[in-house]
């Protein structure tokens, strides 16, 4: 039996990912992606889970993030190199693969630099939907780099956030963020300090990029009832919040074994109590306990979120057609005859000559 | 500073890999690949090493195999699904990535179904160069599937083996192997049993594909001085040799923590003495101890071998041109402005309309 095109794997390039996102619409893309994330968080227990496999160097880190639900297998390759922007490169680039567990064949290869920004933002907003006060409409964003507009758009699409208070050590970054959000229905205030940015904000998003311990938020800056969306602290030695804030907050995480190594809670004892976000989404644990509680989503990004994102873009391929075909897999006429395929290629080339 | 083509990653498709191999020449490719493997085995201690990350299912396994030498980072995705051939698919397919540790950017994506067959064969022949008797010229190959011709060609190119004794439970496979090796300078005998195949052979290669404990070789079949190249037993629960053979042999392995889980030595106590192949190649441990010793290369395949193979094909790209350009990485005009890239794509599309 010969199946057609067994050699082909659909591939979503940067260009096609942009076209796909724009064709679906940024807000709808973020909302539908959040729905798929919610679906996978609800069935969290069905997944194989393992902390990402990291290869650290002086300059940064390269990670592989695999997971499987028994039917599909997905993994993401992602790097984090803070000094890259000085050479015109991205701090974070990524690509991912979705495969069929039944036969091990890749079914999709996709760029994930843009897709990771979208899934991180959609996950943040999904968490806030469960953890922030229901009437939260204003958000401070501290760190106005590559992630900031995605966060803003996701919080608007999923939470209705329409007031932004932006702060970055580099004001150019804030101005770029403001410019990119023009016409999206936000009231935007550019602030000169983190202190000013958090004033009156219902939600505080921290999304800075330095690979080091930093104190973006000090204890006195965080008032009662605030939801903190801590996105930037995502590897060992990189945190953004003062420890005292953690001690005053209800802490929600994706996958404790990974977050204890990489998240804000690396500052706390190993057995410090945290709640897994999936438990809140599945309804087995409470989320916010009253309007006065400080809630903290200590986000580091987990493989299942990338899996959901790959699953989502795959669901859009047939209807949009934004993909190329990669000749990635060997498909000899007779499966056991891999060497014969090589010989026939040689014979064919000889014929052409 | 804007660098040109930061979005592009060279990609070697199945078709281009075949053209690359044929352009270089199969024998020269295998020899040069063995040279690069030898170079990397010599500097084995410089590499980050970890057992592969496996995701097992009823039907098979999907694995990620990362490693790094501090300058380059490589990983391979590979599946193993023995029932695949019944559906016209490959038991094993693979692809790999080589990256720059300094900035985390992928530098090469390559098919590795064909490349893995070549690297496995080159590694086997390299090991035999150090472990088999110097005058070894005849080899039994038990299991005449997709790997068999690659093994034969590598042993000829690197060791001068020119007598083959083929056996497979499916004689069609042996006939296919014989056909594919026609005109390559081998004297070939097709045998009706494994016992017949090993008669008088200097080297015995076992390369069967069943995912189970099997006894391809029993103790009485292996005479003094033979080198056994055990390639097929490569995951937990899959072995090919009777335990008594192991007890009579000098055992050489790639990376003990992985081989003890996956190789023939999973049948032996955890502390049973084995020699690492790199130590023999680097000259710090002896290889074969006299013409009467039975040597066994218990091969399961290790990430560094894939790293060498990716490094080798990458060295051939510029001179041969057999690659495509994948638009895989985001390259906004301003590195921190990923969202702006999306907006400009939208503006450009609007202009076209």
UniProtKB/TrEMBL annotation, chains A, B:
Keyword NAD carried by entry: yes
Assigned keywords, A-Z: Lyase, NAD
MF GO annotations: ornithine cyclodeaminase activity
Protein name as catalogued: Ornithine cyclodeaminase
Pfam family, one: OCD_Mu_crystall
Family affiliation: Belongs to the ornithine cyclodeaminase/mu-crystallin family.
Record EC number: 4.3.1.12
């Amino acid at each position: 039996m010969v199946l057609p095109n067994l050699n082909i794997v659909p591939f979503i390039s940067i260009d096609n990912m942009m076209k796909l996102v724009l064709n679906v619409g940024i807000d709808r893309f973020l909302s539908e992606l959040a729905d798929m994330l919610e679906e996978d968080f609800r069935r969290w227990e069905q997944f194989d889970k393992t902390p990402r496999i990291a290869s650290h160097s002086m300059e940064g880190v390269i990670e592989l993030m695999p997971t499987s639900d028994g039917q599909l297998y997905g993994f993401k390759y992602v790097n984090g190199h803070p000094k890259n922007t000085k050479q015109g490169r991205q701090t974070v680039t990524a690509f991912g693969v979705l495969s069929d567990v039944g036969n091990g064949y890749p079914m999709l290869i996709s760029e994930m630099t843009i897709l990771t920004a979208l899934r991180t933002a959609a996950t943040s907003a999904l968490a806030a939907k469960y953890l922030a006060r229901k009437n939260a409409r204003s958000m401070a964003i501290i760190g106005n780099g590559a992630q900031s507009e995605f966060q803003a758009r996701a919080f608007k699409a999923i939470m209705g956030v329409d007031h932004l208070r932006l702060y970055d050590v580099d004001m150019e970054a804030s101005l770029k963020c403001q410019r990119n959000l023009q016409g999206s229905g936000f009231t935007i205030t550019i602030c000169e300090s983190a202190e000013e940015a958090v004033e009156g904000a219902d939600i505080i998003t921290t999304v800075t990029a330095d690979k080091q311990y930093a104190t973006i938020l000090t204890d006195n800056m965080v008032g009662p009832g605030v939801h903190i969306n801590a996105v930037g602290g995502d590897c060992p030695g990189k945190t953004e919040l003062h420890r005292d804030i953690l001690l005053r907050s209800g802490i929600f995480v994706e996958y404790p074994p990974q977050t204890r190594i990489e998240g804000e809670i690396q500052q706390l004892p190993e057995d410090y109590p945290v709640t897994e976000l999936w438990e809140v989404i599945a309804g087995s644990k409470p989320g916010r306990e009253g309007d006065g509680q400080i809630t903290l989503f200590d986000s580091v990004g987990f493989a299942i979120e990338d899996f959901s994102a790959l699953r989502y873009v795959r669901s859009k391929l047939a209807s949009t057609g934004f993909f190329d075909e990669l000749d990635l897999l060997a498909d000899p006429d007779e499966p056991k005859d891999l060497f014969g395929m090589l010989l026939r290629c040689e014979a064919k080339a000889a014929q052409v000559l």
